[in-house]
Amino acid sequence: MTNNLLIMPLLIPLIAAVLQIFGMRHVPIQRWLGGIAVIVNVGVAVWIVITVRVEGIQTLAMGGWAAPYGIVFVADMFAALLVLTTSILGAVCLFYAFASIGEEREKHHFYPFFQFLLVGVYGSFLTGDLFNLFVCFEVMLVSSYALIVLGGTKRQLQVTLKYILINIVSSSLFVASMAYLYAAVGTLNMAHLSQRVAEAGQDGIIGVIAFLFLIVFGLKAGLFLFFWLPGSYAAPPSVITAIFAGLLTKVGLYAIIRTFTLIFYHDTGFLYTLIGWMGIASMVLGVIGAVAYRDVNKILVYNVVAGVGLIAFGLATANVAGIEGAVFYMLHDMIVKALLFLLAGIMIGALGTTNLKDMSGLIKRYPFTGWMFFITGLALAGVPPLSGFIGKLLIVQGGMERGWYTMTIISLIASLLMLYSVMRIFMLAFWGKDRPLIDDRAVFQDSPEVKREVYHEWSPFRPRRLMAASSVLFAFVILIGLGAGWIQTFVAQAADVLVHPTLYIQAVLKE
Amino acid sequence: MEVWMSIAVGILFAVAVYLILSRSLLRIILGTSILTHGVHLLLLTMSRLKSGAPPLLGEESGSYVDPLPQALILTSIVINFGVTAFFFVLAYRSYLKLKTDDMEEVKMESDE
Q1: Which of B47, B70, B11, B85 is nearest to A168 (CA)?
Q2: Interface of B with A in 46-105 (CB under 8 A)
Q3: How many residue contacts between A and B have a Cβ separation below 8 Å?
Q4: CB of A119 closer than 8 Å to CB of A17
Q5: Which of A146, A172, A183 faces B46 most closely, judged by CB atoms?
Q6: pLDDT level of residue B110 (50, 70, 90 thresholds)
Q7: A152 touches B at CB < 8 Å
């Protein structure tokens, strides 16, 4: 089904961003444009999900050039659900940013970069073409370079240098692997690639190319190759980290899931086992990091790595239960990880530090934030009836069906440690003796410079609005848990296409 | 011809890796730039080198040159141009702020 609707998620933020650049001197105009754009996009995303639900996979051939030759956009249920989750996250984070990002950043193009980042993310989910995936990745990454360094503190500059370098190298590898793939099979349209690779067989050269893609996307997703991730994500303000944790690594994961279910799905032995072990390794290393650090941001960032590992493990089981679990858990993970960072932002804003040693007694002043954090932590670990339960259950079931008992048990232990690491933040930061908030402390009133260094300088702190924005995401954590059965039907439709690549190919190439 | 091009690609990659592994930030940026050049050349080479007609319908349709890799390379060059420019500005900015262009020292400070 050809549908012009598919271009809308890209077009809306793109237009908003361009208009915002023209209105750069007027922060209120930028806010209004951004706010309207993200809310309209939630509507569009819901519409796309409903259309895909009713009419099946939607495609859009740009300029009327038919599939293998022109550029196509494809929305199957998986992509549609991810677009919807992204639009919700984008909206919440933008409203959170209104109350926390600070005028200085607003004047220096925070809002256009935010919208461009969303353009890249939506594009990556919707494109049906490997080269466009690269382009959308770059749109997203360039915006993320700007967002991560915006504000220009020492710490940000240090991490951005490394972040850019690692991403340029991995993007170069991406283009190189695409060159090899193009030479081997002569196409870059994903549906067409799937057909050609199926004809040629996935051994020898194509197996090597698949491995190259795994490295490239693994670098982007932080799957095992996550050495760059903890430093970079811990530097910028909480709302930027939240959007990164919720979206950027998940785009890499989406690319892994898409390519390895649609194109390189023939070798379920070696490559899938490798993905499984990479997933387990990132879970184990992730929870070790999460348990070891005493810095709120660091702990949460290592939890992001562990979450990526679990989703990859779900994919690696290569059976219906495992893949359904991976899709379900991914939707949950995007929301929960972003929410944790947003809540951590309130804690950091209140006390002016990220170190747990200097935090305690927040529960008296921020009881609502405290209990939201507690329940989100439970959701992260997969306690029923919250959002993480079904996804984790299905992944475990998939692992058992595959016969990977050891790996499944390791993943369960890792989940427990994830819960421990988040509960430790809750206990140390919210319990204990009451501390003066950052604004009460004389030392900061005497020298604003100190405050700037400790807390991400210039930022205003309006806890009520921040809590209001966070509670929207929190509502989703509860609702996904309670409505799991209903959402499961959507997830099953998504997994069905992932398990049967022919459905995707037929929809795109219309044979 | 493909063989020579492949060797050239290999040399570019080797030079790029050497530069990226050095300590000076400027050399690293030049390294990334050369790396992407190497990748572009690789893309061109992998899609077979041949001299032929432009891909226009009806005119010598047998001897087309494949336009796709060239379109890809063009896109990639544009992206790389933007990223490199940004990287240079960032390097200058961090030199002003951190007072060093030595990646070893940048790293040491961040470990605190």
Answers
A1: B85
A2: 46-48, 68-69, 72, 75-76, 79, 82-83, 86-87, 90-91, 93-94, 97-98, 103
A3: 92
A4: yes
A5: A183
A6: very low
A7: yes
In chain A, residues with a C-beta closer than 8 Å to the C-beta of B48 are 183
Residue B99 C-alpha, separation from nearest chain A C-alpha, in angstroms: 11
pLDDT tens figures, A339-391:
999 999 888 888 777 888 888 888 888 889 999 999 999 998 888 888 888 99
Alpha carbon distance A42, A88 (integer Å): 6
- What is residue A60's DSSP assignment? E
End-to-end CA distance of chain A: 13
Which domains, from first to last, does chain B contain?
2-50+67-111 (1.10.287)
CA distance A283 to A302: 9
Residue A363's pLDDT is: 84
Q: Supply the DSSP symbol for A74.
A: E
3-class DSSP state of A61: strand
Secondary structure letter of residue B61 according to DSSP: G
Partner-chain contact A175 B94, CB within 8 Å: no
Nearest to A175 among B43, B98, B107 (CB): B43
Tokens standing for residue A222: 């932080």
Q: How confident is the model at residue B104 (pLDDT cuts 50, 70, 90)?
A: confident
- The more confident residue out of A448 and A12 is A12
Residue of A nearest to B71 (CA): A131
| Nearest CB to A165; choose among B28, B93, B97 | B28
For A77-108, b where at least 16 C-beta lie within 10 A, e where not — what string? bbbbbbbbbbbbbbbbbbbbbbbbbbeebbee
Question: Hey, are the CB atoms on A172 and B32 less than 8 Å from each other?
Answer: yes
Q: How far is A332 from chain B (nearest CA, A)?
A: 32
Interval A75-99: pLDDT, tens:
999 999 999 999 999 999 999 999 8
Query: Which chain A positions have a beta carbon within 8 Å of B78's beta carbon?
Result: none
Is B5 touching A (CB cutoff 8 A)?
A: no
A165-169, A247-251, A433-437, A500-504: segment of lowest average pLDDT: A433-437
The predicted structure's pLDDT at residue A70: 83
Q: What single-letter amino acid sits at A342?
A: L
Predicted confidence (pLDDT) per residue in A115-149, tens digit: 999 999 999 999 998 989 999 999 999 999 999 99
CA distance B111 to B105: 10
Do A172 and B39 make contact, defined as CB atoms within 8 angstroms?
Answer: yes
A-chain residues near B109 (CB < 8 A): 154, 158
pLDDT band at B1 (very low <50, low <70, confident <90, very high): confident
Write down the number of H helices and E strands in chain A.
23, 2
Instruction: Tell me if residue A171 falls in helix, strand or coil.
Output: helix
- This prediction has a pTM of 0.93
Amino acid identity of A92? V
Tokens of A416: 């427990």
